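REVIEWER CHECKLIST
Item 1: Sequence provided? yes
Item 2: Single chain? yes
Item 3: Sequence as submitted:
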Amino acid sequence: MIEILLFALTAFAVGFSGSLVPGPMLTVTIRDSLKKGFKAGPLVVLGHIAAELVLVALILAGFSWLIGSKTASIFIGVFGGFTLMLMGFQTVRSPAELPTNSEVEESSQSYGSILGGFISSVSNPYFFIWWATIGCAFISKGLELAGILGVLTFFVGHWASDLGWYSFVSFFTGKGSEVINKHHYKLIMTACGIFLIFLGIYFILSTEKAI
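Item 4: Structure as written out by the authors:
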């Protein structure tokens, strides 16, 4: 029992250290939190979890060799880079007007943040690299430790770190959106968009160097 608990804490610590690194998912969380408030964080994480479940299913089905291959890395890097650039352009071109209460209510009922969490995950090449290496190692250790229970323990710890951090970011971003003006809102959205664009360019250039 103690080993299971320590394993969960280790998964939480490793997942938390990864969550703290700025990336497309963090940018999407900040962007959506300005419009939807606190609930954007958990919704983005839900989309991220969906992407992880799909990837883990592929790994367990025996496709880990494909995910970690050079061909897959090139495709993911280029496709993901252009996807992030597109998301960045859309964010930069978003209206400068702060969303009204009715718009916030309407957008909160959509699946935009869940889809954003999914896309920002699968468009990030390091997402696949992490799961093809560290993720696989944790799954293998979990199976060795306690079978399916060990794997579930890893996911609980890993997802708890994601949910905790992005909910924290979303809460304070949402609180800030209550006091910022239109000018500040546009600056933040532009900064988020530019960051996504440069991140996309970086992924594409990194892929070209690996060819």
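Item 5: Key structural point noted by reviewer: The mean pLDDT is 79.
Item 6: Recommendation: ____
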